[in-house]
Here is the input.
Amino acid sequence: MSYHFNNIDFSTVTERVDLNNIVQSIDPIVYAKTRNYLSGSVTGLSPYFTHGILKPAEVIDELVSNHGGEACAKLYSEFGWREYFQRVWQNKGSDIWNDLKHEQQSIISNQIPKAIREAETGIEVIDHAISELLETGYMHNHARMWLASMITNIGQTDWREPAKWLYYHLLDGDPASNTLSWQWIAGSFSQKKYIANQENLNRFSGSDQSGTFLDVSYEKLAELSVPEVLRERSTLSLINNYPISDTVELESENVLLYSIWNLDSTWKVDSSAERILLIEPSIYDNYPMSDKRWDFILHWAKEIPGLKIYVGELADLLGESYNGKIQYREHPLCNHWQGEELSRNWMFPEVKGYYPSFSKFWKLAQKSKPLKVSC
Ligand SMILES: Cc1cc2nc3c(=O)[nH]c(=O)nc-3n(C[C@H](O)[C@H](O)[C@H](O)COP(=O)(O)OP(=O)(O)OC[C@H]3O[C@@H](n4cnc5c(N)ncnc54)[C@H](O)[C@@H]3O)c2cc1C
Here is the structure.
């Protein structure tokens, strides 16, 4: 049986893809009907959103003008989830790495099970999704939920190390969407833990596996002791192989400072400022990413004419004498940058605060920018 996700191919991340084609090929009605299925028509947009290559606000406007507001309602709310998590991060800062609402219950280990890293849990769909993640950097949302639930709730593991491991391998790894989704599954940022049994996996993946440790009722699953296959743990070591730095000596009066979260080739296109992508090991040593992810970042950085890459610390880039004008886009990992901070391109610029639940945020968000029905 093949679990290939039919409309997404991230296997060659450095090949040129036509983003306009990707957006034009989205059918929001089919998306809404099929998104929960592993073979469903999901968009594959997340790596481009994560790195600021595409902006959700612009994509949704385009989709609404092509398909009408009603058709886009489901996608709109999914983009809304992304923005919600970004706002939680902006308000809570590094606290997103702490249990936000409740302490995670029933933990026997902080280390990710070895069988997960080796894609040998015996649950075929999950093992396949892990293998595909390691190969392509993508995992379907439902597979992420099953995986996270199996590790935290069935395997009784603290969510932090597995979250780092998943983030490392994902092309779309985003500290907010990642940590807060793990917390949502583990019950520390939600009212209860998320658990899925084999029947649920079979239904949404098209598989028919039976006789596994997940092949029980939800009552039994809630009482399950940690299955033998998930008990063995091993030390996880994740490192960055940073790109090679350009030699940069700031000469221009004006500098546009890019982060890896703002690889927007349309940013201030008419400006003659010097453009520098700053990658600070003091920050990214804490957020290691796979070589495939760095290749993806470099590929899209090269789409920005004249952009130089500086791997080092901001203070070293500026030296003691630079006193020109620096502009950059706001991001929680760039809070220490100096110069003029410009806003990100939010979908709902007025809905800024911390909301303890998505539904509270979403009510205000929809009020601030209702979906337009095209004429
Ligand atoms: C344990 C776990 C970890 C996750 N880690 C990340 C992560 O590091 N980065 C990340 O971008 N998403 C993360 N997600 C959310 C979601 O799985 C991905 O955004 C989605 O699968 C990306 O694929 P897509 O672009 O094809 O999604 P589509 O279904 O096509 O959705 C379109 C866009 O809506 C947004 N979106 C959709 N679902 C969600 C969601 N549940 N939460 C937040 N935004 C959503 C994304 O920006 C996505 O690109 C995680 C979910 C779980 C359960």
Q: What stands out?
A: Residues 1-6 have pLDDT under 50 and may be disordered.
